[in-house]
Amino acid sequence: MAGSAIGLGNIWRFPYIVGEYGGAAFILIYILSTLIVSLPVFVAEVTVGRRSRKSAYGAMHSLRPGHKVWKFAGFLAVFTPLIINSYYSVIGGWSLDYFLRACTGQFVSVEPSAASGIFGGFISSVWGPIVCHLVFLGICALVVLFGVKSGIEKFSKITIPTLFFLIIAMIVYSVSLPGAMDGVRYLLKPDFSQITPRSFAFALGQSFYSLSLGMGAIITYGSYVSKKEDIVLSGAGTAVSDLLFAILAGFAVMPAVFAAGIAPGAGTGLIFQSIPYVFSSLGQEVPWLSTLFSVVFFLSILMAALTSCISLFEVGVSFLIDRSRWSRPKATLAVFLACGLLGVVCSLSFGPLAHIQISGKAIFDLLDWFSSNILLLLLAFLTVIFVGFALPRQDVYDEITNGGTRPVNVKLFGFIYFLIKWVAPVFIAIIFVTNFIL
Ligand code: TRP
User: Fold this and answer.
1) Does the CB atom of residue 34 touch ligand 1 within 6 A?
2) What is the per-residue burial (b if ≥16 Cβ within 10 Å, else e) of 184-215?
3) Do the Cβ atoms of 105 and 291 come closer than 8 Å?
4) Which protein residue's CA is at the shortest distance from atom 4 of ligand 1?
5) 3-state secondary structure (DSSP) of residue 362
6) How far, in Å, is the centroid of ligand 1 from the Cα of 9?
7) What percent of the chain has pLDDT over 70?
């Protein structure tokens, strides 16, 4: 579960959302949302998965047949990952491109002041990003087609810790750059005047996104969790490691952003603009180290993106195989075409289609917003309502306390149940509405 949680959401999305929605003060809201809302949602998702032993599509419906709304929840659990997969693979394509640039030593040869310019030229062009996106998605399709998933997952057991150490190294170096301390201050000194109602919506959306909540992933993983496992402890463990990774990524990126003179609210491309500055600065001093560092760094990001994308891809493919009795190749091709096409449109929205905007958002941002702030919240809401109201209290008690055998969880049960049944749904509902009226 921690492997699923840690990904581009932490490294790419978290820093840019923090920069756009309020810096240190946003991080406080983010931590609070994780504790008060996301953790109960996490526990509820694992409960549904472990109780039903089904993947997300049929889980709730199989526990409480007859109600259409639980079928709708199952539908969301297939639909949302597909949407996310489409634009996630565009970012995956960028990582692929940057990995290749690192291999050819491009970040070393360019002046630090020009390093962030690489990004603007790249994404606004038409073919480069599209080809990278399709190649990236194609790799996922091949993995899903040949079912070599377990090999890739073993690989990610190496890349995630590698990334961890690289990020630490990155923090040490980027903090030493001139002007970087402003970035550290930005992350540590809360300025509540930067907080708007929107910050709350984005904090919760980001928290769900980062923990892979609200899209059936944790329900599905929950169906594999053994009866002996402590759900609350797993949830807390996942949330803490995920949070740690996100905050570390923030400290690796934000000082570089300030040192490079980029606006923290620059949006989706934040890490792709700031990280080359770090490698380029290092390249002026020790070129070989910079090349080595950048190659391994972008390779790890690429792997983190691949593993997540493969899981998201697999959701759609296994759904088509189970429901429509399609063969694996046919299902894989269908998902590839659908996500590929939507991804191409997303990619173009940074260039030729940038003028198409709905309430100030280009297509990419719109999809990112729609899936994280709307779709994830919707399924998470249905899940907590399901566990709070449709499942008998005794069943929930059995899951959370492992049949009364976990003394700490037995003590905490009343509180956790209250969070799931009342606090989480009320918060999610309020924040959901915030998206539309403010
Ligand atoms: N949480 C992942 C991240 O932070 C992204 C993600 C969302 C994911 N849902 C998933 C990964 C399902 C694997 C499976 O990047």
Assistant:
1) no
2) bebbeebeeeebeeebbbbbbbbbbbbbbbbb
3) yes
4) 9
5) strand
6) 7
7) 99
Give me the domain span that covers residue 256.
2-437
Task: Look at the chain and report how many structural domains it folds into.
Answer: 1
Instruction: Kindly report the protein residue whose alpha carbon is nearest to atom 7 of ligand 1.
Output: 212
For residues 16 and 271, is the Cβ–Cβ distance under 8 A?
yes
9, pLDDT greater than 80:
yes
Query: Taking 90 as the threshold, does the pLDDT of residue 378 lie above it?
Result: yes
- Provide the CATH number for the domain around residue 158: 1.20.1740
Q: CB atoms < 10 A from the CB of 69, how many?
A: 13
215 CB near ligand 1 (under 6 Å): yes
Question: How many angstroms is it from 4 CA to the middle of ligand 1?
Answer: 5
Please indicate whether residue 238, judged by its CB atom, sits closer than 6 Å to ligand 1: no
Most informative mutation of 42, 207, 308 for ligand 1 (most atoms within 8 A of CB): 308
Q: What's the predicted TM-score (pTM) here?
A: 0.94
436 pLDDT band, cuts 50/70/90, is confident
Q: How high is the pLDDT of residue 333? A: 97
Closest to 152 measured CA to CA, from 3, 335, 328: 3
Would you state the pLDDT for residue 311? 87
- Give residue-wise pLDDT tens across range 403-426: 999 999 999 999 999 999 999 999
- Is 419 touching ligand 1 by the criterion CB < 6 Å? no
